[in-house]
Design goal:
The protein is an alpha+beta fold. 35% of the residues lie in helices and 20% in strands. The chain has helices at 8-20, 42-47, 56-59, 79-85, and strands at 29-33, 50-54, 71-77. It has a 3-stranded antiparallel β-sheet with strand order 1-3-2. The chain is globular, with a radius of gyration of 14 Å. Residues 79-86 have low confidence and may be disordered.
Length: 86
């Protein structure tokens, strides 16, 4: 982020790390985007203390699962990230 444009694929790690620092211990944030080719950077998020769980299948009616129109995930900050952010 900090550029003139925001790109969900390029910038999602920075966004989710920032959001996770605002969460109360054990809190969750829901992240969703409609970029069909979106691939979360699970490794980088985990390295930075953010646990990301893909909940896409739980948020789309069964009839629509054949055409994945968006990605949904929950983001949870691990205790280590919360401790280091304050």
């Amino acid at each position: 982020m900090g550029r003139r444009t925001w790109d969900v694929q390029r910038d999602h790690v920075e966004l989710l790390v920032g959001v996770s620092r605002l969460l109360a211990r054990g809190g969750e944030a829901v992240f969703s985007c409609n970029l069909r080719s979106f691939k979360p950077d699970y490794d980088e998020l985990a390295r930075l203390g953010v646990e990301l769980t893909d909940i896409t299948a739980d948020t789309i009616p069964a009839i629509s699962n054949a055409t994945r129109a968006f990605t949904a995930a929950t983001s949870r900050a691990r205790a280590t990230a919360l401790a280091s952010s304050g």
